[in-house]
Amino acid sequence: MSEERKAPAVRSGRLEGRAGKAAERAFTALDQRLPAAEGGTLLRKVFPDHWSFLLGEIALYSFVVLLLTGVYLTFFFDPSMNESVYRGAYAPLHGVLATQAYSSTLRISFEVRGGLLIRQMHHWAALVFVAAVGAHMLRIFFTGAFRRPREGNWLIGVTLFQLAMLEGFCGYSLPDDLLSGTGLRTAATIIGSIPVVGTYLNFFAFGGAYPGHDFIPRLYVVHILLVPGALVGLITAHLILVVYLKHTHWGGPGRTNSNVVGAPMVPQFTAKTTGFFFMIFGLLAALGALAQVNPIWRYGPYRADQVSTDAQPDWYVGFLEGALRLMGPWETNVWGHTFMWNVLVPAVLLPAVLFVVLYLYPFFERWVTGDQAEHHLCDRPRNRPTRTAFGVAAITFYAVLLLAGGNDVIAYSLRVSVNSLTWLFRGAVFIAPPLAFAVTKRICLGLQAHDRDLLSEGEETGRVSQEVYGRIDEGRRPLPERRRYTLLLRDVPLPLQPAEDEPRPVPRRRRLRLVLSSWYYRDRVELPVGAAPPRPEVTAPPREPLTEREEGGSAGQ
Ligand code: HEM
Ligand code: HEM
Fold it and tell me: Which protein residues are within 6 Å of ligand 1, measured from CB?
């Protein structure tokens, strides 16, 4: 048997003699049936350590909690739209006509043992899940972890993000209370706004005129089978790619673009991440036990002729609600077909454009930079001012829409006119993102200038002294070597330049690329002269295999 295919404990010399032979035999038997030797290599895979890498894990573990609590809910939830008079444990609603979906959710809340806890855990886990997915996506964006070779994983990620929002929307629409019914009414209007086919799609989805009797059972299948199935499949592919492509890490001495340094999967990483799972589980259980969420008995069952004020969707759908509230009442009638711009633009076209932009961003940036190299080091956001500014502008745009989605609540709480507030948000949606872009870019360049200052002048000691001649010395000392190295490890491409032999006049597409490239990369603060950046370690040619190194250990694989 080759050295590689021996049991790890035998290989490392920790097991000798009879015990060693027995271990070797057992391992060989296992390896003939399962890829045990390959699995052993996998167990030593290293995983870099940084708090920002925990965001993906929070998403993963809250998804696991959703699966566990969701299965429990399916034992008791009845997705039927048949109506009957409510006679359950919640006396204030006695005598009210409600669907089985609504009554069974009340039963889960008041009669099933542990039902309210599990229901609230499920809802809190959904809120945390989508938030973690969003935050994880931002970390990938701001650190440039979407660049070659991880573009495929970015595409899977953007799909996961949409599925997460869809799953959440389907989930909170299931109990058929007044709030969720109002959300479904909005969904029906959005489907109906699609030109030409909208009405037919609506009839198809709802099995007749809205609300019909079919929609909640259909939504149920989507919520507990289709979307979770797609999520499980894509998350598995996502994680396989994370393992296969290896994880990015933050640069520093010994941490380069051609290696990955971190704790081995077994035992360090597994121990840490299992503990982290239990922390998340505990936190969600505490939230479920202590913080009320979605008290559907206060809203009452859905009735198509009623709508409550301050009806707010879950936070992740709030931006669509905001976009709908900001849009003016525009419609056009063409050959008997009505184009409802007031719904079509904010609720169909806007999200479509946003997600296409998200899908394409890595390819756009690669085109602008002409950068074909593989990148395994995380970017410091300040070193990519234009990308960072883009990200912050997008977050600002999203935040304005989210706030606009709660314009009635804000107006009521602050005692201001809801119309004035709507106009304020209409202005802000156009003005705030470019403003955020400009401010962020300035801040990034300011931080770069600060880095340059640190490199050339050293860091402040905090001790100001005065010489006998009167000169005041603010007290600086050279940066520690590790910090200096990290600041110098900067990987920022130069703007593309027209080649000497390029045909003139330069074709329009090429000109656009040159202009964009210059706009992206011309603003930068150069590092001090003489401080040679560790360039060779920054960019590796494509398809160089990465070496793995255990923290404080030697290089392997
Ligand atoms: C259900 C949702 C998701 C789950 C459970 C998930 C899980 C994870 C985990 C556990 C990691 C490794 C740890 C880390 O870097 O945080 C990871 C890495 C990654 N994720 Fe996700 N993710 C999800 C959604 C997304 C989204 C929305 C995007 C981007 C649009 C994305 C893009 C990536 C990329 C590119 C990596 C590799 C990062 C690197 O090597 O530095 N993921 N994901
Ligand atoms: C990403 C995954 C999921 C998300 C984001 C999600 C979200 C939600 C939300 C927000 C609700 C409304 C809870 C409430 O009543 O306050 C809900 C209800 C429900 N979910 Fe999920 N869910 C997910 C996965 C699952 C899975 C995998 C199952 C079952 C296998 C499931 C089963 C249910 C059931 C039966 C209900 C209705 C009961 C009720 O509303 O109390 N969910 N879901």
Answer: 53, 55-57, 59-60, 63, 133, 136-137, 140, 145-146, 150, 153-154, 157-158, 160-161, 164, 235, 238, 242, 247-248
